[in-house]
Design a protein that fits this description.
With 263 residues, the protein is an all-alpha fold. The chain folds into 2 domains: 1-165, no CATH class; 168-263, no CATH class. Helix content is 66%, strand content 2%. It is built from 9 helices and 2 strands; from the N terminus they run E-H-H-H-H-H-E-H-H-H-H. The protein has helices at 12-32, 37-63, 66-75, 94-104, 107-126, 140-161, 171-195, 214-222, 234-262, and strands spanning 6-7, 135-136. The chain has a two-stranded antiparallel sheet with strand order 1-2. The protein is globular and about 60 Å long.
């Protein structure tokens, strides 16, 4: 049975998991579409906080996973360290930020969550880390990994789908400012963890080294300095933001035209 449930990027099980979360997302949006804005924000926030709790449960299982320890030891990536497993990566920090953005209405945070959440979590889903692909989806670490990342993807998109945030082209500068502002704060956290020796290899947001990522390695060759090496990421972020806003505008216009025809 386990052999038939092997999950790897873009195989049948992978798409089945994606379909499950997509269905939950569409059902949630449909049910909440006419609810008061505050209700929509609270429900989304609760969903992400539950995901955050699930994240720590998943990490607890991971810390006791002998097979995962063996895999990482063979790969030379070091032992499990709680200080290196905090939800401070680009792919999972939105479990914390989405509730704040939804409930506070702070547009700069909404920009970051809406644009950076799907980007970071999407990359993690397309390029899983060591020990998270070609294994049964029923393993606790696989459920935790794919579950939390899909929740971040759809939780971020829900900000727009639930009408809590409406992306605009002018939000590009806010997105850029929030991305680099949060990256700098994470850089300070990494530096503190390294100085205090709590985690000598702290590298959340890849602020200190590219860790084999070919794109980040290229950027690091241009600016081989901690944090500053992330500045060229604006070359990716710029077209990405404008593309997403364009898609949203086209989709919104189509939805309005459909509603008018229905009336």
């Amino acid at each position: 049975m386990y052999e038939k449930l092997i999950c790897a990027p873009f195989n049948a099980v992978y798409f089945a998991v994606f379909a499950l979360f997509l269905a939950l997302f569409l059902i949630g949006v449909f049910v909440l579409r006419k609810k008061p804005e505050r209700t929509r924000a609270v429900v989304l926030s609760v969903a992400m906080l539950i995901t955050l709790v699930g994240f720590f449960v998943y990490k607890l299982f991971l810390s006791r996973d002998a097979d995962f320890s063996r895999i990482t030891a063979e790969a030379g990536t070091g032992e499990f360290n709680w200080w290196g497993e905090l939800p401070l990566q680009l792919c999972n920090i939105n479990m914390i930020l989405i509730p704040i953005a939804a409930l506070s209405g702070k547009r700069i945070l909404q920009c970051f969550c809406f644009f950076m959440g799907p980007l970071g979590a999407g990359l993690a889903l397309a390029l899983p880390g060591i020990g998270f692909e070609h294994y049964s989806i029923l393993l606790p670490r696989m459920i935790g990994y794919y579950g939390t990342h899909w929740m971040v993807v759809f939780g971020s998109l829900a900000l727009g789908a639930l009408g809590l945030y409406k992306p605009k082209y002018k939000d590009y500068l806010l997105t850029l400012a929030s991305a680099f502002g949060i990256s700098f704060l994470i850089f300070l956290v990494n530096s503190l963890l390294r100085v205090t020796k709590l985690n000598l290899y702290a590298n959340y947001f890849f602020t200190h080294e590219p860790e084999g990522n070919p794109i980040l390695e290229l950027f690091y060759s241009w600016l081989p300095f901690p944090f500053l090496c992330l500045i060229p990421c604006a070359l990716i972020l710029t077209p990405y933001v404008f593309l997403v806003v364009s898609i949203v505008r086209v989709a919104t216009r189509g939805a309005k035209e459909a509603e008018e025809k229905a009336d």
